[in-house]
Structures are given as structure tokens and as C-alpha cells.
Amino acid sequence: MSDVRHRQIPLNGIDMHVAECGEGPLVLLCHGWPELWYSWRHQLKALAEAGFRAVAPDMRGFGQTTAPQDVAAYTIFHNVGDMVALVSALGEKRGLIAGHDWGAPVAWHAALMRPDVFPAVVAMSVPHRRRGPAAPLDMLRKAGKGDYYWIYFQDRAAEDEFARDAAFTLRRLFHIGFGETPAAEKMSLYVDRQKGFLGAAHEVALPPWLAEADIKVFADAYRRTGFRGGLNWYRNIDRNWELTAPWSGAVITQPALFIAGTNDAVITGSMGKRALDEMDSVVPNVRKVLLDGAGHWIQQERAAEVNAALIGFAREHAI
Fold first, then answer.
1. 111 alpha-carbon distance from chain centroid
2. Catalytic residue positions?
3. Is residue 272 predicted with pLDDT exceeding 70?
4. How far is Cα of residue 4 from the mean position of the Cα atoms in its chain?
């Protein structure tokens, strides 16, 4: 992408790789797992053409950004801190923050903790949740849900499974999260440890919105880095619950936009559906855009519709 500028920025104790496009009000784009800045390739150009300065970092532990060895260096405080520091490093005082998958909780908490820096927020696929009464992993285990994927991701077995063949892992994950994938091949949030998270190994067709060249970008990066950095985000789920105690009962009052696919397992499962239904109570000014038939990888799968919603919201709430 010749119109996208790349650079390394030292901030918050790490070196962060960013992809940047356009000039104007700042829009930060936070990717999730197992992704890269490249997940926002369609949004970078569209936002730039609409008059915005779009910046998509490789998040902490991903791609060309530093991956600290200490698991405890991947808390929500670290990730929000990275985004606050990035705004400053870019010479700005505030910006709209958008996030997908794990990037969504970063965007939500950035808005919650620093409304002065992030006066508007966009989240995709993962609703903002009310802080629960106990640590989430403990609650899952006590509820007999020890096979939930969050718990599987605590183990080295997950790293080994995904690193065995990075290209297959990415192909499989994009396939099972695609909105039009047959139900029998869909992503399950519960893991049979004999089969692993990816299930039985077999070739899968790429979704129509991905090319082999796109898979190569992702796979080349993960062959170099492995999957540990991103999985360390999951390994801080209970720690994040402890750290966010001061915000218990707090609400996000800024203008907010939530975009998700109706076939995304994250919002169709019991926990996700409840979070979606209850989100208005913790984000009272949220506008929800649910794209019929779309899956989890929403900004890649439905780029045009996501771009239209994102740009419309950004224009309405230009910083």
C-alpha cells in the first residue's frame, strides 16, 4: 500500500509500529487477535480520502511492535496507556478511537479512563460489558465452563497449536469467523482439547474478501513473532478485572458507535448476547449497527459498509 506511511515510534516503554494515511482529525484504529495493522487496510485509505488522519498501530505484542516478555506487561492499563501515548507522540491532543475484537475493549476503556483524550469511540464485534462481581476466569471455572476458549488460551498448548502452521492457523480462523461459513464449520467458543481450538486439520477455502497475498502478510508476521504476544492479552483477563475496580459502576458517556455482524459468535453466544442487550446501560449514547449475515472479521468482510458507518460517525463527531 504505497499511500500508507510506516514508522516506528518509541512510547510507553516500547517501540510501536504504526501505519498512517491522510491528514486531518485523528482516528486511531486498534486491531484485535490474531491480527495486525493490516486488518484496517480498507479503512486507512477510506478515512484518508474522507479527510481524516488514520493511524493503525501494530498493538503491543503484535507484528513489528515490541513484545515484552513479562505476561503482566499486557494489561488493559498498558494498552490504554499505549494509545494515550500514541496520541501525544503524533502531536495531537485528542482523537476518535476505534477498535475491533481485543481492540474494542482497549477503545472502550480508553474512552472510559481518558474522556479528555478520546471524546468519541467506535467498537466492533465486542460490546462493552458491565464489570462483573468476580474475576471472569474464576467465574467460568466455577460455572463448569473450563473448556471456554479464554481458559484454553492461558496454556502453552494454544501457542504451540497456532504456531505449528501459521498460514493454516490464519486461514482457519478467518474461515470459521466468516459470516457465510456453514454452521457446521463455524467458530466454537468451547475447546475440545483433543482437537484444539482450530479443530480437525483440513484445507479451507479463503473467504471472498481475502486473497492469498493478504494471508501471506499475516502469516509472515506470525511466523516471525509467534502467537505469544497476543495470547498474553487473554492471560491478563483476571488481572484487568482487578485493575479496573475504581471504574466499577462507571459509564461511558461519549458518543459511541458499535458495529457487529449478526452471525458473529461473539454476540450470538449467551454471554455476548447478554452484553449486547445490556450495553445501553453502560454506554448510554451508543448507536448500534448490526450488519445482517456478517461474521467476526467485520471491517475486512464488509469493508464498504463499515467504512460508511465509521466515516459518517467520524464526520458527526470530528475532533
1. 15
2. 101, 234, 296
3. yes
4. 21
